[in-house]
Amino acid sequence: MSDTWKLETRLVHAGYSPDPTTKAVAVPIYQTVAYAFDSAQHGADLFDLKVPGNIYTRIMNPTT
Question: What is the pTM of this model?
Fold first, then answer.
């Protein structure tokens, strides 16, 4: 077996190192469905898409 990875494999794994504590090699999946707001106005601005940030995950989340 070769120790040389193909380009596709290197691209999939680029930019991420194993977690030093758990040795996990995959980026974690966060199951957060709601986020705290600094104020009612901050929440309103987020839902109006006036400011960047994370809101209810069916609308916008860190992976979209």
Answer: 0.46
